[in-house]
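Ops channel
N.P.: pipeline sanity check, posting one input/output pair.
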């Protein structure tokens, strides 16, 4: 029955994608008509993110909050990374970072925070200071020391772009729904990771920082409106919301809620990357086994 439900859900997602895949492409007489829907299509258009069902606290038999890292170097995660060059591609295709940033700038995403506990909200000015750097070049300092006025050519400007994003940190909760008798996952937050914009030009700068945390339930309309290229069939694009809620990515758990102040795996397994990965796999297995254990009497 579970596989039947997944099959029906997949067909529904593909049907929604069909309506949005280059609308009117074969009927357009001029390029401007590509993407324009007919009045009948607009009347029947209900392309919105599927609302989360209400979950009563009494229906949650068990839950655990985990933090994961999604590496953009892995092939399965590349749909979240590309396209990085937006100058030669249509406006309805963007990376996940550009989608989140566009939603923030447009005011569609307002719940943006400093960390994964969603307590300190960030203003647009705070976010911009993390994404941009404006500095005077060495030649500009020489002119200033000589008492000369510098022009724009002596000002270095650097912005974080989609190509600088090395990965995403995500926060979510696994829970066992006793009404439906199954283990489920709910995504709570997303944070793009990149080198610090102030040291991004440094050749030995491998440290990544969290640019901002987005409360994901409030960003679903933005992630759903942006379609992701389907390399198997471009007539059926999916959205970022579909991919994220379906967990169509590979991630490693770097933290789980625990008695030690939610310490990271790297804090109690130090200096050994292999053992850290093995510990992450162990945490995954413990969560996956939870559903099976619920059915063992």
């Amino acid at each position: 029955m579970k596989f039947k439900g997944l099959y029906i859900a997949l067909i529904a997602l593909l049907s929604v994608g069909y309506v949005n895949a280059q609308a009117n492409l074969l009927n357009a007489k001029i390029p401007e008509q590509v993407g324009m829907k007919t009045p009948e299509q607009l009347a029947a258009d209900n392309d919105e993110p599927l609302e989360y069902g209400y979950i009563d606290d009494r229906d949650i038999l068990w839950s655990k909050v985990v933090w994961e890292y999604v590496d953009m170097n892995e092939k399965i995660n590349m749909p979240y990374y590309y396209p990085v060059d937006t100058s030669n591609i249509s406006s309805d295709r963007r990376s996940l970072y550009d989608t989140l940033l566009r939603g923030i700038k447009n005011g569609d995403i307002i719940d943006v925070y400093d960390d994964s506990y969603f307590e300190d909200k960030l203003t647009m000015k705070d976010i911009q200071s993390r994404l941009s750097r404006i500095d005077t070049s060495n030649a500009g300092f020489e002119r200033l020391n000589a008492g000369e006025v510098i022009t724009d050519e002596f000002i270095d400007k650097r912005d974080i772009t989609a190509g600088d994003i090395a990965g995403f940190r995500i926060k979510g909760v696994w829970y066992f729904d006793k009404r439906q008798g199954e283990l489920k996952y709910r995504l709570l937050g997303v944070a793009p990771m990149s080198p610090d914009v102030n040291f991004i030009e440094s050749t030995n700068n491998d440290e990544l920082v969290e640019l901002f945390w987005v409360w994901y339930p409030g960003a679903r309309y933005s992630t759903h409106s942006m379609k992701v290229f389907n390399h198997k069939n471009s007539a059926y694009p999916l959205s970022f919301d579909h991919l994220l809620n379906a967990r169509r990515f590979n991630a490693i758990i770097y933290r789980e809620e625990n008695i030690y102040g939610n310490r990271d795996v790297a804090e109690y397994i130090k200096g050994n990357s292999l053992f850290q990965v093995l510990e992450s796999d162990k945490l995954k297995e413990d969560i996956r086994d939870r559903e099976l254990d619920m059915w063992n009497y």
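N.P.: looks fine end to end. The longest helix spans residues 273-294.
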